[in-house]
Amino acid sequence: MQILPNLPGRNGTASETTSWPPGAPTRNTSEVLAAPRSAPGARATVIVPTYNEAANLPRLVERIFEAMPEAEVLVVDDASKDGTADAARELARKYPVRVIERFHERGLSTAVLRGLKEARTDVCVVMDADLSHPPEAIPELVRAVENGSEVAVGSRYVPGGDIDRWPLFRRVASRAGTLLARPLTPVRDPMAGFFCVRKSLVAGIPLKPRGFKIMLEILARTGATRCVEVPIHFEDRSAGDSKFGPKERREFLKQVAALYRDLNAWPWRLGKFLLTGALGVLPDLAILNLVVRALEGTPTYGAAAGWFVAMSVNHAINRAWTFRARHVPAVPSYLKYALGVLAGLAVRVAVMKALPSWDYNLSSLLGIAAGACLNFLGLQRWVFAGR
Ligand code: GDD
Ligand code: MN
Question: Both 293 and 259 in a single domain?
């Protein structure tokens, strides 16, 4: 876990060269980072993580300041081999550009967090260096956050947004990833790399920065709900190579799995609920056998007792594990739970009655599925809700 104020790589692992205002002496020590200076007149910081983007940086910076002259640009470069940092320092002679060079750390997500940490304005924009993200959208993103949105997204997947010249494979992979990430956030383009946030939103929130999808991490773990999406036209990069490859894809899957688990997202909860329900046959059959063999009761009594015990066990597991709802009092939730189970049974019977011409196994299965859906929704909305 990483919390913004405690980023590693602070001492001696990075250097910063500041040349704004023009002619100011440049220094190369990490102490420079600690000294808070106000960015002269800056309204927002545009954080640009770079790895081998020397060819793209000049045009990008020019377009950023055309779009928003009150910005400060913060380039976070991971020791690029093509002279990106030098190109950035060259630009800093003319524009309010700051450069952070990291020599002992690599990664897009950690670079963005480093930029957020070093930014001198609360409002920050994050964007790629390769001109995929239109700088012309920056003012609208900034305005949205200034006006109270927690996160503003430069979005490809809202009406008016689109992607230019992407190979079919990347389109499909992007859509599949978006589908996986959708339950974690309220936005339509959770995979975007172009967004605006306040650094105060992120400060103090434990993040696990890995791979490329830092916005997803921020959105999911801050639980931001006030989000706006500004449609953008996503251009394919004009020069250089994409760094998004199989390793980044694997990182993304690990990230999504960790977020599902850590945040108990609804697909994860549903899986646990179904597993609990399926495993409920074990206590059920155990009690049935106990009643019939050891207590010499009838199978009907055994079945009733088994059902009752299984329901009680399932209530306990669902409360503590599936829904993480130990804060909900046990007895009232148990009574509601029992009512819910009966309602599920009623749904099953109703479905069977509604489909008299169907094979009773099929209509029963359909009824069980409908009852389980209703139970799940009822449990999370009504029985285990309220935090
Ligand atoms: N500092 C740093 N360190 N920057 C990096 C690193 C790194 O290890 N790897 C990549 N970058 C920079 C690139 O130089 C570029 O500015 C930006 O991060 C995005 O990298 P690309 O290689 O262009 O990625 P992409 O186009 O495949 O993916 C981008 O677009 C996706 C769709 O919007 C990223 O922004 C993704 O996050 C985004 O989902
Ligand atoms: Mn790109």
Answer: no
